[in-house]
Amino acid sequence: MSWVSKEHELPFEHTPIEGLYFLCGDAYSRVVERDTTVGMKYPKINFPSGRAYEVFDRENNEIWVHLFGEYAVPLFADRDRAFAHLQALITPTDHIAYFIHPVDDDSVLIWGNNELERLLITYDRSNKVIINIQGVSGTIGAYRVRGHTYHLP
Q: Which of 57, 59, 68, 65 is nearest to 129 (CA)?
């Protein structure tokens, strides 16, 4: 989605979403000393991990969280839906660089090329909403999540 006019009301703008905020294009333009964002806003969501991601709406006014590149997940869903969607994005050539794996019964792991593309997305199973997106560390073949080491199959 990126920058939109402040006058344009987004479908999720008045939805109570924890961590949702809008960057002010007027203030941003003063910081970067460019006028391209004057009168604009940029929707983002901040998670408990301290990471913030762009939020956008798709068809049927569904709210999605943009992770990186072409990778995004639905904000209001569950682990299985996010996992299926992310797996569908992986092409045979991407399979070399990206790995998608369900973790426990509430999370999905994306293991990508660099630290910014190694994420654990955790859903609240009962409310069907993302409750956190955090970075994951480890080495090729094994990663640590929630105090446990998982080995890639």
A: 65
- Structure tokens belonging to residue 147: 């105090």
The pTM of the full predicted model, rounded to 2 decimals, is 0.83
CB 87 within 8 A of CB 100: yes
Are 51 and 131 in contact, with CB atoms under 8 Å apart?
no
Name the residue with tokens 């479908």.
Answer: 11
SS3 101: strand
Is the pLDDT assigned to residue 108 strictly greater than 60? yes
| Alpha helix (H) residue ranges in the chain | 25-32, 79-89, 94-97
Tell me: pLDDT of 153 over 60: no
The separation between the first and the last C-alpha atoms of the chain, rounded to the nearest angstrom, is 35
d(CA 57, CA 75): 10
Strand partners, 68: 71
Q: Which of 17-26, 78-87, 113-122 has the lowest mean pLDDT?
A: 17-26
Q: Give the residue from 89, 148, 91 showing the smallest Cα distance to 120.
A: 148
